[in-house]
Amino acid sequence: MALSNPTKAFIAFFVILGAGILGYVIGSQGAKWTQERKITQYRTASTAAAVARMNDSIRVGNRLPDGEFRNLRGGKNRLSELARSGAVIAYLRSNCGKCRQEMRELSKTLQGGEQPLVIVISDSDPESILQLADEFGLTCPLLVDSESQYRNRLGIWVFPFNIIVKDSLLIENMIADYIRSKEFAEIAAR
What are the C-alpha distances in Å from 75 to residues 71, 115, 118, 143? Predict the structure, then answer.
């Protein structure tokens, strides 16, 4: 049985349409993969460079030094009192674009119902940190690093700088760049 010309045209149209859609999907997925790879490479290089400049004791597998901080949410806290396994200790600054992006990403995660424990430490003006936390609806502990003592002790010179700890402040990972919402969700799910 031979197909009529209109039927052939109809089939050809849908074959071409299907090929176009498939090409678009493959291309966009390839672009996402390439972008993700570039982000990962940049972050790995940035973290390695930042860690190389830090105090030699601040390495994955070592314990993060404890410290006492004024909590903008009230009182004083030792880092060891707040940190639990899987906690993200985020050293942020109020005038840092990537730090604001990290707060935005954390806010997205909080809206999704997943709440990883995040502890923000900053040597920025306390009022500006409170304003940012309010802007993004964050309720995590906000610790003040008076006169940059803790930052200098660790040797942090890149912002944001994130340290993920296990129990007893054991360093599990370090990330020199903002953490994205899906990463916060993965950390929280552990």
Answer: 6, 23, 18, 10
Domain of residue 110, CATH code: 3.40.30.10
Kindly state whether residue 64 falls inside one of the protein's structural domains: yes
- Residue 47 placed within a domain: no
Q: Is 22 helix (H, G, I), strand (E, B) or coil?
A: helix
Please tell me what DSSP assigns to residue 63: B
Task: State the CB neighbour count (10 A cutoff) for residue 124.
Answer: 18
The angle, 0 to 180 degrees and rounded to 10, between the axes of the packed helices 181-189 and 97-111 is 50
* Two tokens, residue 23: 């090409």
0.85 exceeded by the pTM?
no
pLDDT tier at 152, thresholds 50, 70, 90: very high
Percent of the chain with pLDDT over 90: 53
Residue 128 phi/psi, 5-degree rounding, is -70, -35
- Is residue 5 included in any domain, yes or no? no
| Counted domains in the chain | 1
CA atoms within 13 A on the CB side of 149: 11
